[in-house]
Target: DUF3068 domain-containing protein
Amino acid sequence: MILVIGAVLLSTVITPLLSRMPAGLEKGSVFVGTMATPDATGKLAERPVEVQRTMKADAVQGNSALITSSSAVYATPRSEGAQPIGGSAQKYAINRSDFTQEPAFDNVAVIDQHGGAVIGVPPNPSHDGQSYYDHYLGRAVPLTFAETGDVEGRSVVRYTYDASGALADEKTATTMKAALGKKFGTDGSVIPTQALTLMGVPASALDGLGATVPVTIVAHTVATMTADKQFGSFLVVDQKISMGAAIGDPDKPIFTIPMQVTDVHTSDASVASAAAELTDNAAKLAWIRLWIPLIVGLLGAIAVVVAIIRRRPPQVGAPTSGDDNAPASGELSLPTGSSATDEVSAR
Model:
């Protein structure tokens, strides 16, 4: 009976625990693509880059985890000892089983992801109702289902999103405003109206404006997020992030000065490695979820049957010690028919 109960617990309790994000998670992936930034003439100049992204579990408490998502951008080809040309880091609190947002613990400050996914959607995700936290915009953006498919032998669900708004990444915004201010002789939060005229902005668009015009650093992201169907983690990510300085009203700018365009996707090597790891995990879970409980359950059932057989009571009429009428060895003990109760009991 203990084996049977153990099989049930293994399938219903232990398996879910093993399928959640490990406490010691520290995974890296590489993104490749291009980054365009202004050259000496102010025009965007494109160069190849490599982005090293790392996901690390800093602490766990039950089914909750505090994680740090960091990225470092390197110019390629990347020389030994090269320093990153950009990067960022964010800290989140997520559920270890379905990757949804969780309350923080240990008084650790985390980003409010507004219910959006950061490392993956729930396992076997629905096509509708999913969202992704875009840290550049500082909000959760809805994911639009695109299609299902197959990547490196893994069944996947593909989503897309297209969103824009004021840049919420303060570090990046500050850097861009500093560069803008250096160019126009301001602190970067405004641009002289005269400079806009020299840039070819029609005078009619500048009517009624003062000596300076406010500037807002904005971002526009177009992305495709491909999630593993079984586990929910993002297997392939393709992102194009365009940043610029919106002159005037950020919703209806007079003019937008391009500042940076980063167009990257998960490298083929990272995709293959992640898919292989997910396939290996799936095989292990299949053994734990199906075969091990089946074997343990079968052994348990056999043990129960053996125990029942061993505890079967002796037949009524069987010889007992000291019975003078007991048959000799080899003789059969037959019911005498003197009591119906005896026969029923024997049966």
